[in-house]
Amino acid sequence: MCLFLEQRKTDKCRFGQVIEVVRAAPGQELCPVELLQQWVDIQISRGVLPHEPLFQQIDGRRFARRPGEDCLSGGPLDYQQLRRYLFRMLAEASGLDADELRQLYGTQSLRSGGATAVAEADQVFDHEFNQFGGWSSSSACATYKASSLDRRLAVSRSMPHAQISDAASATGGELTEQEKEDVACLE
């Protein structure tokens, strides 16, 4: 699926950008292409026109076209509404309390989780990753990536003072028993 993003923070000349999104692999529970297509179908059924924002603000002052349906304002969804609705949906789906979720996570948590997963897969070049995510530089992107414990320990293992045991080498970098004990006190 190709998405045209009319403007992004890093698109200073406002040329817009096309982002390609692939379908999920067979057997995956969620597919971004299918979910977006379902959302587009819902929006079309609500009367949203092609030139209007795909994600619109909810307007509590107007009457909805159908009973039980939110009334859309026609304007783009703002951050606060996105956050409120996102956490309400996550709470309903997970059975957790929405207020607790709001305290633990922000909308950037989704961006950070995605960035971390792609970085750990290590299958794309940094400049491609930055362009897809809308980051102007690798350093801007790095603030969204979290490193796994194994990746953080790999940095320490590569230092000149590190004494990598034959067991660690044989296991392809898996934690040795001693490393597990050393790390247990940090967690």
From TrEMBL:
<feature type="compositionally biased region" description="Basic and acidic residues">
    <location>
        <begin position="177"/>
        <end position="187"/>
    </location>
</feature>
<dbReference type="GO" id="GO:0015074">
    <property type="term" value="P:DNA integration"/>
</dbReference>
<dbReference type="InterPro" id="IPR013762">
    <property type="entry name" value="Integrase-like_cat_sf"/>
</dbReference>
<feature type="region of interest" description="Disordered">
    <location>
        <begin position="164"/>
        <end position="187"/>
    </location>
</feature>
<dbReference type="InterPro" id="IPR052925">
    <property type="entry name" value="Phage_Integrase-like_Recomb"/>
</dbReference>
<protein>
    <submittedName>
        <fullName>Uncharacterized protein</fullName>
    </submittedName>
</protein>
<dbReference type="InterPro" id="IPR011010">
    <property type="entry name" value="DNA_brk_join_enz"/>
</dbReference>
<dbReference type="GO" id="GO:0003677">
    <property type="term" value="F:DNA binding"/>
</dbReference>
<keyword id="KW-0233">DNA recombination</keyword>
<dbReference type="GO" id="GO:0006310">
    <property type="term" value="P:DNA recombination"/>
</dbReference>
